[in-house]
Amino acid sequence: MKFNKVTIPPFSAQITLGLERGYTQELILKKEVITFLQAYQKEVFTKNNIALSASVSNCKIVFSGQIEPHLKINFINYPKFPLDEKLLKETIEDLTKALMREFHQNRVVIEYLDETTMYEINDEIDSRIKK
Fold first, then answer.
1. Which one of 1, 11, 16, 40 counts the least CB within 10 Å of its CB?
2. In this structure, are residues 40 and 98 in contact, taking their beta carbons and an 8 Å threshold?
3. Would you state the pLDDT for residue 63?
4. Is residue 38 part of a domain?
5. How far apart are CA 18 and CA 105, in angstroms?
6. Would you call 2 helix, strand, or coil by DSSP?
């Protein structure tokens, strides 16, 4: 059996998305986020030929009195459909803003290998966070 090995430089991005609409404690279902993500993936593939593969997993953010369910949405530069890193970052950041609008998120963080980026609409914080 012959195996083909394909390598590209490492790339990793992770969006951490809260599963509460705003600071209302109204829960967002994981399947809602996945449905939105799939529609976004289809759109960028159809319009721009960008194959944006993602893995989605559950987690909880614990911070100073706040315990909130979140999703981690992870991306790599998939070797089968490699993209320019700048284009990949732009696409992930556009997706992040779309997720924020759709699910009423005030703040979302993206972790890359070389930087951590936060998008924020305003300075408001969850009232459960104790200063």
1. 1
2. yes
3. 85
4. yes
5. 7
6. coil
Residue 22 falls within a domain, yes or no?
yes
Q: Which range of residues forms the domain containing residue 65?
A: 12-120
**114 close to 9: Cβ distance less than 8 angstroms:** no
Burial class (CB in 10 A: 0-12, 13-18, 19+), 24: exposed
Domain count, the chain: 1
The per-residue pLDDT string of the chain (131 residues; one tens digit each, 9 = 90 and over) reads 999 999 999 999 999 999 999 888 899 999 999 999 999 999 999 999 999 999 999 999 998 877 889 999 999 999 999 999 999 999 999 999 999 999 999 999 999 999 999 999 998 777 666 65
The DSSP string of 25-91 is: TEEPPHHHHHHHHHHHHHHHHHHH------EEEEEEEEETTEEEEEEEEEEE--TTS---HHHHHHH
CA 17 – CA 53 distance, rounded (Å):
17
Reading the block at residue 10, the tokens are 């490492």
Residue 77 lies inside a defined structural domain of this protein: yes
| pLDDT of amino acid 66 | 79
How far is Cα 19 from Cα 28, in angstroms, rounded to an integer?
5
